[in-house]
Amino acid sequence: MGLNDTPSGDRLHIGFFGRRNAGKSSVVNAVTGQELAVVSDVKGTTTDPVRKAMELLPLGPVMIIDTPGFDDEGALGELRVRKTRQVLNKTDIAVLVVDAEEGMRESDRQLIGLFREKELAYLIVFNKADLLSAVPAAGEREIYVSAKTKQGIQELKERLAALQPREAEKHLVGDLLSPGDLAILVVPIDKAAPKGRLILPQQQTIRDLLDCGCAALTVRDSELAQVLSRPGLDPAVVITDSQVFGAVSKLVPETVPLTSFSILMARHKGLLEDAVAGVSAIKGLRDGDTVLIAEGCTHHRQCGDIGTVKIPGWLRDYTGKDLKIATCSGTEYPEDLSPYAMVVHCGGCMLNEREVRYRTKCAVDQGVPITNFGTLIACLHGILYRSLSLFPDLQKLLHE
Three-class SS string for the chain? Predict the structure, then answer.
């Protein structure tokens, strides 16, 4: 993906599921017009989920995911089926590919059951229709296609477009401000900052402010005091990188709302309310407890890394407890959270909303408190209430 491409977390995720040799990969290649997946007559050719971000008309920016056969066998097969189940947690639209000659089997019905359980929009695609003597009438959620001859492929794309969720436009922060308002963005530039660019939440916040007719003034933390001292400056909000929350809060007047990119992203992905409710769990941490630090992306960790160094250090200093720290990143997220006293998740900028909500639900359902980086850091610096000044309803939650 290039700098001008839609981030993967904001793309419509379309997952292709089915039995081995039903033609999932062939259908994926036909729909995308590219050789994204390896095609073979050998069962189980697709051994791991294959992902591809692309523009697909008439849908727009999408993430296409081809999965291993759901009827795979043996020890490795079980692992592949587990991977396929994990894909469902980030899928917006599910496509079940069935061999039209063989018809529906038990594993196909199991998948449909999972689609319904997870409340997914789905479509059943009967592939290899060119091998049938007569194409049966298709049901409401069904379509007959041939990946080989491209029969029905255009209609399939149009059917997928019709399943696309029609949600109201969601903002990071612009909807909380008025047109013409000024937001000051505090962006530290250190060894961890990417060369020549800003990290994704910073980019997206600037764009959101511009879309809503607001002004964005971006400054390093080292120059913030100088900027704030300028006569006539009247910011509607200061948004900072969570890592410098403590220092920034001492510089920004109490009358000016203060929050962080991480908190805004957690709100955008549907995590913030649970993050605020869960952060109080740090007061109950005991010696030997394990805290899971979960990140939605993988990156080269440097000295002073936020997830593996700074947050663990701040937690131990705040609690005075001998805590154990576990980490996970990227697409890996434990299904069983019982070993952990709490989960601290990143803002989730690289994950789509469905996956963030799934991860949150896993924690809530298992009774494991979950919070996020920005909320936790604000709490550890004693400024949690202030960091939620844009969200009075959540401030009230702290007093309940």
Answer: CCCCCCCHHHCEEEEEEECCCCCHHHHHHHHHCCCCCCCCCCCCCCCCCEEEEEEECCCEEEEEEECCCCCCCHHHHHHHHHHHHHHHCCCCEEEEEEECCCCCCHHHHHHHHHHHHCCCEEEEEEECHHHCCCCCCCCCCEEECCCCCCCCHHHHHHHHHHHCCCCCCCCCCHHHCCCCCEEEEECCCCCCCCCCCCCHHHHHHHHHHHHCCCEEEEECHHHHHHHHCCCCCCCCEEEECHHHHHHHHHHCCCCCCEEEHHHHHHHHCCCHHHHHHHHHHHHHCCCCCEEEEECCCCCCCCCCCHHHHHHHHHHHHHHCCCCEEEEECCCCCCCCCCCCCEEEECCCCCCCHHHHHHHHHHHHHCCCCEEEHHHHHHHHCCCHHHHCCCCHHHHHHCCC
Q: Tell me: the pLDDT tens digits for 82-128?
A: 777 788 888 999 999 999 999 999 989 999 999 998 889 999 999 99
pLDDT over 70 at 362, yes or no: yes
| Side chain identity at residue 365, one-letter code | D
Pairing verdict, β 237-240 and 215-219: unpaired
Q: Which residues contact 362 (CB under 8 A, 6 or more apart)?
A: 333, 335, 337
Distance CA 172, CA 128 (A): 44
Q: Which residue type is seen at 389?
A: S
C-alpha 329, offset from chain centre:
12
Report the alpha-carbon distance of residue 277 to residue 272 in Å, rounded: 9
Tokens (6 digits) for 227: 């900027």
Q: Of the candidates 120, 132, 129, 121, which has an alpha carbon nearest to the alpha carbon of residue 153?
A: 129
The whole model's pTM is what? 0.81
Is residue 188 classed exposed, middle or buried when 0-12, 13-18 and 19+ CB atoms within 10 A define those classes? middle
